[in-house]
Design a protein that fits this description.
This protein is α/β, with parallel strands linked by helices. The chain is 45% helix and 14% strand.
């Protein structure tokens, strides 16, 4: 019987999924994945098939697989399995029950070609242009920040670390070890806030701050205040200072001049640069050393912090929702992974905005 497998009518099951509010169906309705086709086709190396062989999978179909991997934290093997197992996944990528599902090796090769072509930056820029065409202009100023994305920690000797920091590779490493050890990620220190002990009539004393070593890369980005879309981003190793990338993440097309940022971005060079470009800095101020924070500065910091906190929603969605970590080796693959996470965040953000009930 057409549309049936066993005791279950496939068409009825798909209709039930849609009625239940399939989030992937909503995403597919608001994001026109066809707009990426030209860029994807240009980045892929396709044979002319003059000697025959199986035809390649559709470029947009495979890109949808990468989006699924990002949304649900799937390895290549798990992506293959879940697409075979779940009707909603199969429908999202555009496969029917009788169609062949791309295997894990095919998914890896597809992503690797995009990485080598540096395609993810252009894909991100294309979708940003599409957002503007839909009327989602960058409005209200922008909020910038950075976060560390952890990668697999290498186990190295002191001599190996010194050699890598100097830009070299240990001479005794085999080709296999070179391929497995990430020499482009860096260590950094994540510092927690100082906690204060209850005074109980005594002067309150600050306890020691929490210090956590982290290895990986850093996602520097800027969002527009009006809609919350990621508009600009840059990926560096984790030890790069946040403020050094301010010029790279500022969006000159934003129709308002305000720039909200934390104290890491407050420097004479950054303030001068923003003034030259016509931006108005809304940057947190540091506490004076050895003196209490003046009340007017404290109130200003609190006001700016309420606005600046919106950028944390992006990091929370990527780290807690997408469980974003770097399992690959090297800066190029890390850039691709983080770029795809930023792009997928924008997909989901658009689906949320367009799915809201219109005000009455």
């Amino acid at each position: 019987m057409s549309g049936q497998t066993g005791f279950f009518d496939t068409d009825d099951r798909l209709a039930w999924l849609w009625a239940a509010g399939d989030p992937l169906e909503r995403l597919a309705k608001v994001v026109d994945f066809e707009l990426f086709r030209a860029a994807l086709e240009a980045a892929l190396v396709r044979s002319d098939r003059s000697k025959g062989g199986r035809p390649p999978y559709d470029a947009v179909l495979m890109f949808r697989v990468l989006v699924l991997q990002t949304l649900y934290t799937l390895s290549d093997d798990q992506a293959e399995y879940q697409i075979r197992d779940r009707l909603s996944f199969m429908r999202f990528v555009g496969l029917a029950l009788h169609d062949a599902v791309p295997d894990a090796k095919t998914i890896w090769l597809y992503r690797e070609q995009l990485v080598r072509a540096g395609a993810f930056d252009s894909l991100f820029a294309q979708f940003d242009a599409a957002l503007r065409d839909k009327g989602y202009l960058a409005l209200g100023g922008q909020i910038v920040d950075a976060t560390v994305v952890e990668a697999r920690r290498p186990r190295l000797t002191r001599e190996e670390k010194d050699t890598i920091k100097g830009g070299g590779i240990p001479a005794d490493w085999s080709p296999a070890r070179r391929a497995q050890i990430d020499t482009e990620g860096r260590w950094t220190i994540k510092r927690g806030r100082k906690r204060e002990a209850p005074g109980g009539g005594q002067p309150r004393q600050a306890l020691g701050e929490i210090v956590v070593p982290m290895f990986g890369y850093k996602n520097h980005l800027g969002i527009d205040r009006a809609h919350g879309f990621v508009r600009r981003f840059v990926v560096t190793h984790a030890a790069r200072h946040d403020g050094s990338q301010l010029g790279e993440v500022l969006d000159r097309s934003n129709l308002a001049s305000g720039v909200w940022a934390d104290t890491a971005y407050r420097s004479k060079a950054n303030l001068a640069m923003m003034e030259r470009r016509g931006f108005f800095p809304e940057v947190q101020r540091r506490k004076p050393r050895g003196r209490p924070m003046p009340e007017h500065i404290k109130r200003g910091n609190a006001t700016r912090a309420r606005i600046r906190a919106h950028v944390e929603h992006v990091f929370a969605a990527e780290k807690c929702g997408f469980h974003l970590v770097i399992r690959t080796v090297g800066l190029a693959r890390a850039k691709a992974k983080i770029a795809l996470a930023n792009l997928t965040y924008n997909f989901r953000r658009l689906a949320w905005i367009e799915g809201r009930t219109a005000p009455v």
